[in-house]
Design brief:
alpha+beta; Umud Fragment, subunit A; six-stranded antiparallel beta sheet; 4 helices; 39% helix; elongated
Length: 184
Amino acid sequence: MEKKSRTAQIGSALFYIILAIAVAGTLIWRLTNTQTGPAQIAGFSGFVVLTESMEPEIPTGSLVISRQTDPYKIAVGDNITFFVGENTTVTHKVIEIIDDGGLAFRTRGVNNIQADYNPVRPGDIVGRVVFHSLFVGNAIAFFKAKPWMLAVLAAISAAVVLLLRFAFSPKLKKVMDDALEGRR
């Protein structure tokens, strides 16, 4: 079997880098689109925190990933994301589990003095928070404001991968070893 040419290897690497960035960007864009309510991919939904109600635990601007969860597995102290309107979601901490003929959860933002007025019913729960990151949330906000920067990121990533491939290629290592041998 014939080895791939250097150009084919570079083209293949570039293609996969650009594809990976495009897929990641699309998934993040889709997960955080709150115009029509939460999008779910494999049971996970993503949101960017817009208020200070969960600070300092989850800062404003953070990306929050919630996973669909059986309501009976939610415990006091869990952070959950739930609907408070048709397309509006909130992420707050469970402070009490109510079982008065039907399961419900009393919630409160950690930065709020009072508990939320209405208990959360299982049908309103989007999921339990499994991940949150201010850095990723800020990156999402940046790329949403400047989507063309994804192309710049793809080009920089491709350049770095190519530089690393050349730096660690066996031919380059042999040339460097020969050059060092000549100096001794």
